[in-house]
Amino acid sequence: MKKYLVGGAVRDLILNQPVIDQDWVIVGAKAQDLLNLGFNQVGKDFPVFLHPETQEEYALARTERKSGKGYKGFVFDFNENITLEQDLERRDLTINAIAMDENNQFIDPFNGIADINQRVLRHISPAFAEDPLRVLRVARFAARFHHLGFTIAPETMQLMQSIVEQGEIETLTVERVWLETEKALKTKNPQIFFSVLKKCHALHILFPEIARLFTQSLHQQNLGQLTFNTLKYTSQMTNDPVTRFAALCCHINAIIQQADIPSRALTTLDQLYNRFKIPTIYKKIANIANRYYRLVDNIELLSAAEVVDLLNHIDVWRNPQHLQQLLFVCYANAKATYNDDKLIYQPKNILEKAYQITKAVSIQAIIAQGFVGKGIQIELNHRRIQALISLKN
């Protein structure tokens, strides 16, 4: 029985990237052998074991054979005669098919180290096409390692396009698509994830609301490219996937506003939310960004009452982080609109100052003066408006 460190941990060691999780493969053993050593078995499709002390995952070397449609249509073989190379061959990319033995020696049967050095994402074998989930995984790896100069090999992109054309991508569950998307939103360049999906013709199938943006223009700019650039600039400002998702969604309803038919059926944001069962916090910030970024852009034209009304609508008093999340998207969208990475965005300074001034209005003083019930909120709103009027004067 031999154990090998495999997959992402080995790849990231070679790339000098932080190693978060370590996965191990056991060759020459049966499930009972690991159980006898105190490992705990988890997983249904094939046995994965948790080390009794480190809780790291250990899996028996296995092969897989396509037995049906979709990413779940596989039969697994994990008998003790499966070799390390057979196990590595079933993986998606060469850079993820490198193992390291207990002497820290690399086993690299598919030239993954060369592809790491050349910064290429390349599939291992034609069996890549058997699992449509790999289209999303490659897109996510492209986003994750874009800053290191990685690109997708042309033959791998061609295979991804073939998977889409054959309809396999449509077998993915919405839950799995969202899981991969959420992971992509946490990478350094999430816009690359969606760009890759567009290039392999999967975007209009998985995210038709976003794909449709490429058929529209706003301020003489393609709305799809503007959205991707807004997401890029937002990601340079914050690692928060919720804010990044809001940037992705900020232009979606612009299509509705340009349409001649005022139909609820055209509200594509709701369609996106409902299909993927988007978590509430993601929807909340995306709605705020979608509805109010134009107001923020024109903050200098708003009256004091309108500014306070805006702050009320984004629920900034109970959730002050909403203001920064909105401003990140607005600032990024302005940079994308003017194609200016060093743009000074005055609305950000104005709205932040307005918030500080209105926040300083004391509710305790209002209560002490005898206001009660709804009168407290009415007076508080009035004094916040007066504070901003005084500032302007």
UniProtKB/TrEMBL annotation:
Q: Does the keyword Disulfide bond apply?
A: no
One Gene Ontology molecular-function label: CCA tRNA nucleotidyltransferase activity
Q: Which UniProt keywords apply?
A: ATP-binding, Hydrolase, Magnesium, Metal-binding, Nucleotide-binding, Nucleotidyltransferase, RNA repair, RNA-binding, Transferase, tRNA processing
Quote the InterPro entries the UniProt record gives. Answer: CCA_bact, NT_sf, PolA_pol_head_dom, PolyA_RNA-bd, tRNA_CCA-adding_enzyme
Q: What range(s) does the tRNA nucleotidyltransferase/poly(A) polymerase RNA and SrmB- binding domain occupy?
A: 149-211
Q: Which residues bind ATP?
A: G8, R11, R91, R137, R140
Origin: domain of life: Bacteria
Enzyme Commission number, as recorded? 2.7.7.72
Q: Which Pfam families match?
A: PolyA_pol (PF01743), PolyA_pol_RNAbd (PF12627)
| Annotated positions binding CTP | G8, R11, R91, R137, R140
Q: Which cofactor does it need?
A: Mg(2+)
Q: Which reaction does it catalyse?
A: a tRNA precursor + 2 CTP + ATP = a tRNA with a 3' CCA end + 3 diphosphate; a tRNA with a 3' CCA end + 2 CTP + ATP = a tRNA with a 3' CCACCA end + 3 diphosphate
Is the keyword Hydrolase assigned to this protein?
yes
Catalytic class of the enzyme: transferase
Q: Which SUPFAM superfamilies match?
A: Nucleotidyltransferase, Poly A polymerase C-terminal region-like
Q: Where does Mg(2+) bind?
A: D21, D23
> NCBIfam families from the entry?
PRK10885.1
**HAMAP family, sorted:** CCA_bact_type2 (MF_01262)
Q: What does this protein do?
A: Catalyzes the addition and repair of the essential 3'-terminal CCA sequence in tRNAs without using a nucleic acid template. Adds these three nucleotides in the order of C, C, and A to the tRNA nucleotide-73, using CTP and ATP as substrates and producing inorganic pyrophosphate. tRNA 3'-terminal CCA addition is required both for tRNA processing and repair. Also involved in tRNA surveillance by mediating tandem CCA addition to generate a CCACCA at the 3' terminus of unstable tRNAs. While stable tRNAs receive only 3'-terminal CCA, unstable tRNAs are marked with CCACCA and rapidly degraded.
Other comment: A single active site specifically recognizes both ATP and CTP and is responsible for their addition.
Family (UniProt): Belongs to the tRNA nucleotidyltransferase/poly(A) polymerase family. Bacterial CCA-adding enzyme type 2 subfamily.
User: What is this protein called in UniProt?
Assistant: CCA-adding enzyme
Record organism:
Frischella japonica
